[in-house]
Amino acid sequence: MDEKKIDNMNYSYSNYSKKTGKPTRKIKNNNLTLETKEDKLCSSCNKENNPKDNYCKFCGNELYEIVSLKSSETKLDLKSKIKELSYHANTRGIFLTTFSTIFILLVISLIFKAIITIQFNDISYMINPAHIMLALNLGQISVSMSTMMGSGFISANIGLLILLIIPVLGLIISNLIFMRKRCKDSKTTLANSLGVGIFYGLILAILCTFTNVKTSSHSMLEYGYALEYSYEFFSALLNGFVLGFICTYITNYRKSYEKENMYMSLFSNAIKIFILGYALVLAILFILTISDSSYLNELNMSGYSSGIDLFAVLPQIASYMWAFANGISVTIINSTVSMLSLGSSSLFGDTKLMFYAMGALSALIILLNGYKLRFKYDTDNIKPVIIFSIYYAFLMGMLALFSTFILDSNINFFNTPSYGTTLVMQFKLFSTIIISFIYSFVISLIGYKLNSAD
Fold it and tell me: Are the C-beta atoms of residues 448 and 371 closer than 8 Å to each other?
């Protein structure tokens, strides 16, 4: 470390920091620690001492050495870090949390199975509780069908966010019962979150391999057919990991951990900003829809303007609104809208104003967050802004992953109205990550610099 430059200030002849008032000696020693020597044989008089001694009892020579924390951290390779995380992980808690969540979902799936059997008895034999469990976790499904009149396919990514309430609640309840008391520090929380995410994702992915359905008939629909459908392995694996990790992290992370690890603190901060923004948009949409739901007609969603359908579709629209507010191009019922194209779109003035208001809300939230980051970390280095933006972009990418609704069909599957059509509601994953990173970085940096200019 250059002793003349600490926190970008020249302290060559200063005893105290001009910025914080802290003694220069303490600032210099932030990355130093005392480490006891394994060999208690005094290097000065060659006499042996007790293991707990810090000084030689014969000549007073030091039995410890000063080491740099940074140098010891850099020696840790990826393998060592994984080993360290696995040491902190609570295996019993991970297993109990994951299996209790699966059990909760299984019970709920059995209830749904009974309802399907009563309402749709003709096709209930093709659906088992595992299929319902994967559907609740928004697994992607592929269907192929052949009949006497030809063959075709259906590819469905049914990203209805309302369905996530069930697995999210299951994971949170399981964490509160089996994991909360076992997370005593930031490293344990991170290790357990990764463990639940990996294990939960693997279970869902394994279910995919045992739930393929192949069936045929010569009586239904007045002509024979052969049907095959399955859930995508990697879709279930990724969805399960993200849900398990984030739910465990949110449930077990505590404010007291913020001083232990800047990276985990910033990730927690990104989650808070993401949830705050989405929740505000959802609340505003709910209030607007109660007073005037005409904007749903312009978005070709007039059929969902009342009753249970409205509660199902509002969380979906809120995700697209929040993405739009972050400068991302979104597609709603095959119509694409972005900040650049909104002015020339066919939407009415009130609806355009609503979209622009969401953009202003998003900018304000992230600007204030950047302003607060400067208070929290008290450094001219923009590293906190960069790390926050990376995490925020990741969360926006996950929202894109879960809220994608694509129904692509070239067959008439049990007289479905989607025959020969493609229905799309989404914002694309990779462009979302890139755009949301740039957007959050620029807006947060402005707030960060505004604070430093005070």
Answer: yes
With CA atoms as reference, report the closest residue to 316 among 271, 358, 286.
Answer: 286
Whether 394 and 294 share a structural domain: yes
pLDDT band for position 58 (cuts 50, 70, 90)? confident
- Cβ neighbours of residue 109 closer than 8 Å, sequence gap 6 or more: 129, 130, 132, 133, 136
pLDDT tens digits for range 313-348:
899 999 999 999 999 999 988 788 999 889 888 888
14-53 per-position pLDDT tens digit:
555 555 555 655 545 555 566 666 566 777 787 777 767 7
Half-sphere exposure of 242 (CA within 13 A, CB side): 20
For the residues 214-228, what does the mean pLDDT come to?
Answer: 60
Shared domain for 46 and 89, answered yes or no, is no
Q: Look at residues 47, 75, 103 and tell me which one is the last residue of a structural domain.
A: 75
**Which SS3 state, helix, strand or coil, does residue 318 take?**
helix
Query: What average pLDDT does range 146-172 have in this prediction?
Result: 82
**Cα gap 140→229, rounded to integer Å:** 11
Tell me the CB-side half-sphere exposure of residue 72, using CA atoms within 13 A: 9
**Is it the case that residue 192 has pLDDT exceeding 80?**
yes
Domain range for residue 131? 81-260
Measured in degrees and rounded to the nearest 5, phi and psi for residue 377 equal: -105, -15
Residue pointed to by tokens 């393929």: 212
Residue 7 corresponds to which tokens in the numbers above?
């926190």
Same domain, 248 and 316: no
Query: Would you say 415 and 398 are in contact if contact means Cβ atoms under 8 Å apart?
Result: no
Cα–Cα distance for residue pair 318/314, rounded to 1 Å: 6
Task: Choose between 296 and 358: higher pLDDT.
Answer: 358
As to burial, measured by CB atoms within 10 angstroms (0-12 exposed, 13-18 middle, 19+ buried), residue 432 is buried
| Residue 290 tokens, joined | 């109660």
Q: What's the domain count of the chain?
A: 3
Let me know whether 271 and 403 are in one domain: yes
CA distance 417 to 428: 25
Rounded to whole angstroms, how far apart are CA atoms 336 and 427?
9
- Whole-number Å distance between alpha carbons of 390 and 434: 9
How confident is the model at residue 123, as a pLDDT?
73
Per-residue pLDDT at 421: 62
User: 53 — alpha (psi -120 to 50), left (phi > 0) or beta?
Assistant: beta
- The answer, yes or no, to whether residue 234 has pLDDT greater than 90, is yes
Q: Report the DSSP pairing between strands 335-337 and 330-332.
A: antiparallel
Among 119, 145, 148, 143, residue whose Cα is nearest residue 131:
143
- The residue with tokens 């060999």 is 39
